[in-house]
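Why do we care about 3D structure at all? Because function follows from shape, and shape follows, mostly, from sequence. That is the central idea of this module. The next example makes it concrete: a single protein chain, its amino acid sequence, and then its structure expressed as tokens.
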Amino acid sequence: MILIGYLVITVVVFCIWFAKFWGDTTTPKDDRISWIALAIGPLFWPIVLPLSILELASKKSQVQNIAEDGEIQEIIEEADSGIEHQNSIITHSQSE
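And the structure:
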């Protein structure tokens, strides 16, 4: 059952990539490397999916640990001050 799910995801990924590839006007359709990447890329998707889920789960637990320590508020405040600083630079340079 799991193998069938992985194969379905592989086919879906291939279809999406094929549609994007076919609609891309910048890539020539006779480029052999593009076709090879299109054929091989979705085959590795079943390997990447579980690894991505594990990585997301570990990051979620790390974020929860940081939130419990109260460090997340400091990170948010630093990010907000950085954005405000960037906006003031952009506004200042546009008015010149």
